[in-house]
Amino acid sequence: MSMFGGRLPQGADGVGETVASFPTYEAAQKAVSSLIAGDVPARDIAIVGQGLRSIERVTGRLGYAAAARSGAINGLLLGLLFSAILVIGSPTVPIQAFVGVLFVGIAIGMLLSIVTYSFVRRRRDYASVMQVVADHYEVTVTAKSIHRARQVLGPVGAQSATAPAAPTPAQENAAEPPRYGERVTPDDSTSAPTPEDPGSGGPDRGDGRA
Q1: Which of 4, 102, 144, 210 could form a disulfide with 79 if both were Cys (CB 3.0 to 4.6 A apart)?
Q2: How far is CA 91 from the centre of its chain?
Q3: Which of 46, 60, 49 is nearest to 24 (CA)?
Q4: How far is it, in rounded angstroms, from Cα 19 to Cα 1?
């Protein structure tokens, strides 16, 4: 969590100033609960999602069989609803009428689902679920309650401020031998020695004179 001092959320009009930012919506909900418990008016609090993006999750492949199956389930629920209404309105209705309403609901549900799929399958042949998520969530409070909100979230902000810093990577030891598979770059100090000049600094040798 990170704390901000009086920064207006981007693209938010009339929601107040940002007092905290969280990576998940659940953490933002907990902060709102803390603010309400700290006597901050609920109508002065808002949760603003920043960096919104849509995610479409593919759940399966569509076909006439899948469309009929889902339509049958929906029709069964619809038949149960009408059967319950029929039983409540006429308690002496025979069981055959109850079962007949169920089958009629299943048939209607399957027919509607198949007809709908026949029009949709030209555009896509898969089923999916659309979801909207945000990169982070900002808790905002109006100006008249901003001071109280900062007092309530003060301890949480202090904990985030005193969080330990990330450890710095250890420096490589020059005297350490190279690890297995590590490429060694030839150094100038380990280069091959240059041949000595025969006219300078060489050891004295006898010239064969006595």
Answers
A1: 102
A2: 52
A3: 49
A4: 11
112: nearest Cα among 72, 61, 66: 72
Other beta carbons less than 10 A from residue 121's beta carbon? 14
Q: What is the pLDDT of residues 193-203, one digit of tens each?
A: 555 555 555 55
pTM: 0.47
- Flag whether 25 is in a domain: yes
* Type of residue at 133: V
Nearest to 5 by CA among 15, 13, 17, 16: 17
Same domain? For 21 and 124 the reply is: no
Q: What is the DSSP letter of 157?
A: H
What CATH code is carried by the domain that includes residue 147? 3.30.70.1530
Render pLDDT for 86-139 as a digit per residue (tens, 0 to 9). Answer: 888 887 878 888 888 889 999 999 999 999 888 877 777 787 889 888 999 999
SS (H, E, C) 131-194: EEECCEEEEEECHHHHHHHHHHCHHHHHHHHCCCCCCCCCCCCCCCCCCCCCCCCCCCCCCCCC
Supply the pLDDT for residue 118.
85
Helix extents (H) in 48-186: 64-89, 95-120, 146-152, 154-161
